[in-house]
Design brief:
The protein has twelve helices and no strands. With about 250 residues, the protein is mainly alpha-helical.
């Protein structure tokens, strides 16, 4: 299978089985999504969704968040990974949005990465989700799944992964392909013990063909070898004779 054929197979599979894939973060507007994505770094979406409602109630927009103090905001974020840094990032982000962008969340990657706590991955998420821009966000799931399947070759950085994926994924599908790969990595192609038996991408997956299938064949051959081996003859051992009991001499 050529690389293009592999991409075509994967895209066709997801179009059929996950046509409406989307982020699992809960949000109502770009501001809420930006806050949620900043908090989601090295944290589960489930935990973020448990945390953001209270934040949005107390800080409904960047105007309110920009006035927050560290001590007031931190308790809302305490249960999130790296709460100290993320508390500072959220306040700094809101202040910069108010000062530099008139209170409006910017919609370009170049502008978004200027905000505290916003890297290329976060900026790609925001622009692809809000505007369906053809930007590929690469997190740990996308990085792992792309390499395992064989969509990427020797891509050692998220940026290298992003560039290789963009070479083969049609521009109008990039925004949803990001979610396809994330969700597949989150629930099927997990980091440890991937659930290959449940995966529909096996025919196109290099990991399955080069690792899992070989292990399965090896196990099957070993099972056949053991079943074909002649049973060892077991010789019954003769019962041991009891030693004669010596009678005591009479005086």
């Amino acid at each position: 299978m050529t690389r293009k054929e592999r991409f075509d197979f994967v895209i066709h599979y997801f179009q059929e089985h996950a046509p409406n894939a989307e982020t699992e973060l809960l949000y109502d507007n770009p501001y809420q999504l930006l806050v949620a994505v900043i908090l989601s770094a090295q944290c589960t979406d489930k935990r973020v969704n448990m945390t953001t409602p209270a934040i949005f109630e107390h800080y409904p927009d960047t105007k309110h968040l920009a006035k927050a103090t560290f001590d007031k905001l931190f308790p809302f974020i305490r249960s999130i990974s790296y709460p100290n840094n993320k508390t500072k990032h959220l306040i700094g982000m809101a202040q910069m949005v108010e000062k530099e962008f008139g209170g409006e969340i910017p919609h370009t990657v170049e502008e978004l990465v200027q905000l505290p706590g916003v890297g290329r991955k976060t900026a790609n998420v925001i622009t692809s989700v809000i505007d369906k821009q053809p930007n590929m966000a690469v997190d740990t799931h996308v990085f792992r799944v792309s390499a395992r399947i064989g969509l990427t070759v020797k891509a050692t950085t998220p940026l290298a992964t992003e560039k290789q994926l963009l070479q083969f994924i049609p521009e109008d599908l990039v925004h949803i392909a990001h979610h396809w790969l994330i969700l597949h990595g989150r629930y099927i192609c997990v980091a440890r013990n991937p659930k290959c038996s449940e995966c529909g991408l096996k025919p196109a997956c290099k990991y399955y063909q080069n690792v899992v299938m070989k292990e399965e064949i090896k196990a099957l051959n070993e099972k056949r070898r053991q079943s074909a081996a002649p049973a060892k003859e077991v010789k019954a051992s003769a019962p041991k004779k009891k030693a004669p009991v010596k009678k005591a001499a009479k005086n």
